[in-house]
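quick one before i forget lol
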Amino acid sequence: MRTLEQTVQRLCDASRKDFTNPYDLTWPDAYDQEQWYTSPELISLYGTAFYTELSDAEKKRLSFLEAVNFFSLNIHGEKALIEGLARRLYEKNSGIYSDYLHHFLDEENKHMIYFGGFCMRYGGKVYPDKRIVLPRDYADGEEDFLFFAKVLIFEEIVDVFNVRMSQDERLAAIAREINRLHHRDEARHLVFGRQIVNEIFQEYTPGWSAEVLEGVREYLEQYLVATWREYYNPDVYRDLRMNKPYEVYESAFDNDACRKRRREISDGCIRYLINNGMLEKEPSL
């Protein structure tokens, strides 16, 4: 197994080799209402009666709105990620990987250019961030662990969407390309994320009390559920002019087909967390 230092050097080399200009992306003048922008099987309402009752045109409109929501979620996630990475540059414990954080920051900024470009050009907005982060105290190493673990969970789920939609020829070319570009960089981020999360966890858990460890596991479970809930956005359903969008949101999230899809997409991430002792059981998604 590579040491963290070896991994960082390899990832830095790969980032330099893969360096791109985000402004080279060619944008269509307008979005094509006849195209899909989210793979139908990945639409939040897929498998529910709500979806079945939509016309073909409404399903494609929903796929576009869900793409705006998906890219909005990525913008908010990456804003928080950039802030957290910047705070960790050249801190005492980050010297071994600070070089890679520069590449990480650069690539996440490029991703926001892609996502924001799509949302503002074609949707005219970014859906707002609804999460509230409250200040709290941390045990030694806990804050860094939770920061990188949340980044990993978010990016593991997103990357499944990216890979599948980058390969889905039903989708508009611009949607496929944004997903492809994002996955290309995220593949490196996930390698780094899995290693740094595990190293921090193994270093600090021997000093944590049983109560701290239990709290960390509970927090990760809650974060997984909260992350998935953002994919079911009542604002999207309202923009589609669906009746009672909050009831649609609750009903869809509780739907068995939707629950099965969340478990399947999250499987790799959850198995990693369980196999490395960060979770003891599969969360109820």
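fyi DSSP finds ten helices and no strands in the chain.
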